[in-house]
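Duplicate of #3305? Posting structure anyway:
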């Protein structure tokens, strides 16, 4: 049975993108295009942080934590999203939980040469705890959440799975 400790950054990202995606993911549904996206993300990560190693927090794995306790994440997308932010805040929350005085997160978008800085405080910690509870509600539901409207599914790796009759 999945617990709060099992909820990681990917779960939070999918929660924000689409609850149905989160539900499918936790049931082991992995469309082929997902692996292509993972490979693209890995290639961008390797180019950006050639000498760093991901930090393993159990369910959550983040790209890099610097000496000043800022989380660094590299994104393959072209624009910041609420999912990116929630995922980064989740990593900060997990670090805070294990006693690291985390300052916040720095998200880099190499494609558009943009950097977003997120401070971590009590508001963010509360939001992260709420997100974990929301994710647990979704993944423990008996039935899959409804599809989004098709216009919101553009680019989703589960598109064929959800929309092929
Ligand atoms: S295709 Fe649409 S409904 Fe299906 S998981 Fe993706 S975003 Fe959600």
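Output from current build:
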């Amino acid at each position: 049975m999945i617990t709060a400790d099992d909820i990681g950054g990917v779960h939070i990202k999918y929660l924000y993108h689409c609850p149905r995606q989160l539900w499918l993911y936790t049931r082991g549904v992995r469309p082929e295009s997902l692996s292509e996206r993972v490979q693209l993300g890995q290639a961008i990560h390797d180019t950006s942080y050639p000498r760093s190693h991901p930090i393993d927090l159990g369910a959550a794995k983040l790209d890099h934590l610097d000496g000043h306790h800022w989380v660094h994440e590299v994104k393959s997308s072209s624009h910041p999203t609420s999912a990116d932010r929630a995922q980064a805040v989740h990593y900060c929350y997990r670090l805070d939980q294990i006693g690291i005085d985390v300052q916040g997160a720095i998200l880099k978008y190499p494609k558009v040469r943009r950097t977003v800085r997120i401070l971590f405080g009590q508001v963010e910690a509360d939001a992260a705890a709420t997100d974990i509870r929301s994710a647990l509600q979704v993944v423990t539901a008996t039935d899959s959440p409804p599809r989004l409207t098709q216009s919101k599914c553009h680019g989703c790796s589960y598109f064929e799975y959800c929309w092929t009759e």
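Confirmed duplicate; merging threads. Strands lie at 55-57, 60-62, 64-65, 70-74, 104-109, 114-119. The two ends are 31 Å apart (CA to CA).
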